[in-house]
Amino acid sequence: MSLITRQDLVSLVPAADSFVGVDSDGCVFDTMRVKQCLHFHPLIIRHWGLEAVEAQLREVAEFVNLHSRHRGRNRFPALLQTFELLPTRPGVAASGVTLPETRDLRAYCESGLALGNASLAAEVARTGSPELAKVLEWSLAVNREIERNMEPVPPFPAAVASLRKMQGRSDAMVVSQTPEEALLREWRQHGIDSLVRVIAGQELGSKAEHIRLATEGRYAKDRILLIGDAPGDLAAAREAGVAFYPIQPGAEGASWERFHDEIYERFLAGRYRGELERGLLEAFERSLASEMDER
Ligand SMILES: [Mg+2]
Questions:
Q1: Dihedral (C-alpha) 259, 214, 31, 99: value to the nearest 10 degrees?
Q2: Distance 24 CA to ligand 1 centre (A)
Q3: Strand order across the 19-22 sheet
Q4: For 106-137, what is each residue's pLDDT tens digit?
Q5: Which residues of the chain have a pLDDT value below 70?
Q6: In sequence order, what DSSP letters do the residues of 207-235 get, joined into one string?
Q7: Centroid of ligand 1 to alpha carbon of 90 (angstroms)
Q8: Ligand 1 centroid, distance to 23 Cα (angstroms)
């Protein structure tokens, strides 16, 4: 499979009468916790000298990136939110640690720019802000660290079993905001790329666009399902007007097992949307806290 283009999505010819989109990071692969806890967070601690409040920093960073409604959001607003929550935690003020400055990071996050290393580097050059320079240094270090040191994380076994179950019955596609190249590497590395018709990454547009391009005029709306682990996935399903099955953060294996054993058949039989879906979505939304102490 070579790199996918938008045309590949548009010209996808159905081989089945139903379509299932699956998110990759944190959904098929248990990569969220590893990426955040072993790579992102230690580098925050080191870059901003927060060793004295390591426990509190990890607590807020895990809340923002894994357990809150903001799970799966862009790294820069997530960093800003982490820094803003840090002083509210017990023991931080008493530690005497110098807390990170956030004024320029906030301005960058609210600038309307596409948030990424390229636009951040341009802002560092334009403003000369040492605060932003430090954020950029951290962000580049995170990329290097993950590329060099992150061990491959295997997919959830029940996710693979579910994809196998779909063979010949539904057209499956990866619907992701991870760069295409990384997606192809991960799916090939674990030998599961052949279980999906297409692998769509961030270069091909938003998740809702992926679904629209790949399905429009080819499948009935009630024959399309998106599976994901973050509120952004649910929003994409809503935008595309298709059904959603949540992979519950922290209970991913059990969520996939239920999908494999029960939900997929119900979806095929037209008995998933409605009460069953609503109940699962309510539980999913409840499990992602809006306030730290709600957990
Ligand atoms: Mg995800």
A1: -120
A2: 6
A3: 198-200, 171-175, 19-22, 224-228, 243-246
A4: 999 999 887 788 889 999 999 999 999 999 99
A5: 1-2, 294-295
A6: HHHHHHHHHTTTS-GGGEEEEESSHHHHH
A7: 31
A8: 6
Separation of alpha carbons 30 and 267, rounded Å: 24
Distance 50 CA to ligand 1 centre (A): 28
CA of 219 to the centre of ligand 1 (A): 24
Cα of 189 from ligand 1 centre, angstroms: 19
129 Cα to the center of ligand 1, angstroms: 32
Give 94-122 as a DSSP string: HHTPPPPP-HHHHHHHTS-S--SHHHHHH
Closest CA to 268 of 216, 217, 223: 223
Which distant-in-sequence residues (6+ apart) come within 8 Å of 290 by Cβ?
68, 69
CATH of domain 6-30+154-294: 3.40.50.1000
Domain boundaries, the chain: 6-30+154-294, 32-149
- The per-residue pLDDT for range 156-171, each reduced to its tens digit, is 999 999 999 999 999 9
Q: Name the 3-class secondary structure at 258.
A: helix
Q: How far is residue 154's CA from residue 144's CA, in Å, rounded to a whole number?
A: 21
| 273/87 Cα distance (integer angstroms) | 43
Pairing state between β 198-200 and 19-22: unpaired
